[in-house]
Amino acid sequence: MKITTAMVKELREATGAGVLDCKNALQKTDGDFDKAVEYLRQKGLAAAAKRAGRAANEGIIGSYVHAGNRVAALVEVNCETDFVARTDDFLALAHDLAMQVVAAKPRYLLPEDIPAEVIEAKKKIYRAQMKDSGKPEHVIDKIVEGKLQKYYQEVCLMQQPFIKDDGLTVQDVVTQAAAKLGENIVVRRFVRFELGEEIGAPQPGSG
Predict the structure, then answer these.
(1) Rounded to an integer, what distance in angstroms lies between the CA atom of residue 38 and that of residue 28?
(2) pLDDT at 206 over 50
(3) pLDDT > 90: percent of the chain
């Protein structure tokens, strides 16, 4: 199938990928637009994974203050260069992440940030709920693990469903941004403020 300039332009506008990448994707998928989009997405995510170990020492602190000025959040998002930190895409990502913190109230950044005693307490509660179920121990173990995973999705920022598209996690959104911008992107920490909170209370994600 002949790949036209119009096809390349349409794919580029939809994905933000380079002209040559778009042309190559269309050639590899015989001009199928949807398959070309998926090809570029997979290629970008694979490249983002390779970049994950690179140092991310630049970046910005994104902020969001909710209407009424009663709730706000700050999120530190790091990248590799000051150039990327100043792009509209990176600024929008940081803003969306701060909005996520305000709306979804995460307490931790990642599951590994949750204190061991908190996880153990959760396991005890889940096991107590299963005590009279009559289920075998190995089945109970799987149910407890499943409940823990759901808990992580509720309280850990990077595992939460993204507020603008609940088909993606926050980690998915960050990975896609890294693929598009061509740099390693790391969410370092966050803090959420709500009017009337007890002063001195532990701030989630600030470790």
Answers:
(1) 12
(2) no
(3) 57
Determine whether domain 58-104+168-194 maps to CATH 3.30.479.20.
yes
What angle do helix axes 88-104 and 170-181 make, rounded to 10 degrees? 170
Q: What is the CATH number of domain 5-51?
A: 1.10.8.10
Q: What are phi and psi of 202, to 5 degrees?
A: -55, 135
| Crossing angle of helices 5-15 and 33-51, rounded to 10° | 50
What pLDDT is attached to residue 207?
39
Q: How many degrees, rounded to 5, is the angle at CA 10 between CA 6 and CA 11?
A: 120
Please say whether the beta carbons of 81 and 203 come within 8 A. Answer: no
pTM: 0.69
Q: Would you tell me how many other CB atoms lie within 10 Å of the CB of residue 183?
A: 24
Give the separation between CA 184 and CA 56, rounded to whole angstroms.
Answer: 6
